[in-house]
Target: Tight adherence protein C
Amino acid sequence: MVVYGILTLIIIGIYFGISVKVGKQYDVVVEDFKNDYPLMFMAPVSLFIIDNLKIMERLYSQIAKIQQKMISLYGNRTALQHTRMYVAQLISTSLVCLLGTFLFTLLAEGDVTIFIVGILFTVLIPYAMISKLSSQEKERKEKILTELPEVVNKIILLVNAGETVQQALIRCVTQTNDPNSPLIKELTETVNKMVSNEPFHQVLNDLSKKCGVQEISIFTTTVLLNYRKGGNDLILALRELSHELWEKRKAISKTKGEEASSKLVFPLILIFVAVMIIVGYPALTIL
Model:
């Protein structure tokens, strides 16, 4: 029991010691990300640990996987900063879980069960956070793939009406104002680059890399191969692509429907068990 109290004091002492040493060193970084991540009050301590223990370099292979997801979610420019802050959040969460484990074990007078459960949570919660990040990346890609057929259809109509691909993209963005749409956000950035007179092929290549979706790469490649020719060649290529995209959208909708049905199975089982208990309990009491 005394050991848990000492460990609790050690963690608290280390935290406050590092906080005093760090001072305002990471205030600018914390200010930039304060609305994006939880436990930001612990971020300076975690960032200090990352820098001094060189965690980003020593665990490069593991952190590279997180950075790849951050590139997909936030783009190349800020991916490294987001990765660093996300690792800081993993460290902060682990410290909180570890402190909670020692504290609750101390309050329970050294109960070993609580200690073991706390250690399990300390190990599993960071894995759960990384798994959630993978789910966010998957959801973003599915949203992009779901929205892409509509955008391609609009471009087909506008190009068929006589507009250029660039004008069609600009009109798609200006006529659609959905802040929750990841595809529209990326297209808005693409249009801004086009308006700034950046090369069209470079802008589309950046769009393809930023989205990280195979279908976007096919779309940009199709446009780049055919937009100079214009006319029927571009329209036919986009129509063929649109047909494939709608089929993939149907497949995604079907998969989501099946997942929703499977999620309902467990609640239905619980309801069935509850009904059986309600119906069967009077009969058992009579016997």
Observations:
- The chain has a mean pLDDT of 80.
- The longest helix spans residues 112-160.
- The chain has two domains: 2-110, 142-256.
